[in-house]
User: What shape does this take?
Amino acid sequence: MPKTVWATFSQGKVELLEQIAIPDGTRILVTILPDDESDFWLKTSQTSLAAVWDNDEDDIYAQLL
Assistant: This one.
């Protein structure tokens, strides 16, 4: 299953901002987010997530807690 993690690029290397286990030789896909566009993509992702999770049908699960 795909996993998305934040990273930075420094001195020619991609440096993950969190520890995750990745076997050697694993192929990865890197998407470059220009600093001036990162807020746009973050807000877009939040909007999509809210559309999926913020609905009346799922409120029944909140009552189980």
About this structure: Strands lie at 7-10, 13-16. The longest strand covers residues 7-10. The mean pLDDT is 80.
